[in-house]
Amino acid sequence: MIFDCDGVLVDSLSIACGVLAQMLTDEGLPMTLMEARRDYQELLLAEVVTRVEAKLGRTLPPDWLDRYERGRADAFRRELRAVPGAAQATRRIKAAGIEVCVASQGKLSKTSLSLALTGLDGLFPEAVRFSAYSVAKGKPAPDLFLHAAASMGIEPAGCIVVEDTPSGVTAAVAANMRVLGYAADSDEQALRDAGATAILRSLDELPKLACADGRV
Fold it and tell me: Measured between alpha carbons, how far is 6 from 114 in angstroms, rounded to an integer?
């Protein structure tokens, strides 16, 4: 089972996008939390910078990205929590003999910090953490999920992905993996339209859904 990190294992999206919204507002691009989530949530940081600079009509300061990552990390240390049920569901999945890993659009350093701050690092050791920064293309391309499956020694068709964004679902479908859409804080219909085979609104539902079609 391949877990996305942000929004699935850790409740980080509003924190990260809140920092982003404030920093963009400070740069002269007024931005609300909801607008930041709508426009930038699913992007790699380099893509965020490119789009922001196009809107501003100028380049951001050379240290802007470093300051954003530091500000986000500081906010995580103050506020970050695990998604309710994440640890319990993961333990039940592992107890059933199913291998788990995490595949995130973010850098490995960000994933490591998030897992450590929420106490999930013991369930996802370094060897089973994968990042879009390690492949040619991030989500919605399938590269990250294919990389994770290959690293785990599992055929794509034998993998289940838990995702909360349409781009993540699209990537998993393109990788020929079954996808469970986590819709506690996401658009359920958008996840279905992207190809999620089932929707869960709580991670407590995950162990049952994971085995629903007998593929694991």
Answer: 9
Backbone angles phi, psi at 178, to 5 degrees: -75, 140
What are the CA-CA distances from residue 196 to residues 72, 166, 177 (Å)?
A: 30, 9, 10
pTM for this prediction: 0.92
Radius of gyration of the chain (CA): 17
Measured distance CA(147)–CA(77) in Å, rounded = 29
All structural domains of the chain: 2-11+81-210 (3.40.50.1000), 13-79 (1.10.150)
- pLDDT, one tens digit per residue, over 30-67 is 999 999 999 998 889 999 999 999 999 999 999 999 99
Report CA dihedral (163, 167, 173, 176) to the nearest 10 degrees: -90
Q: Which helix (H) or strand (E) holds 125?
A: none
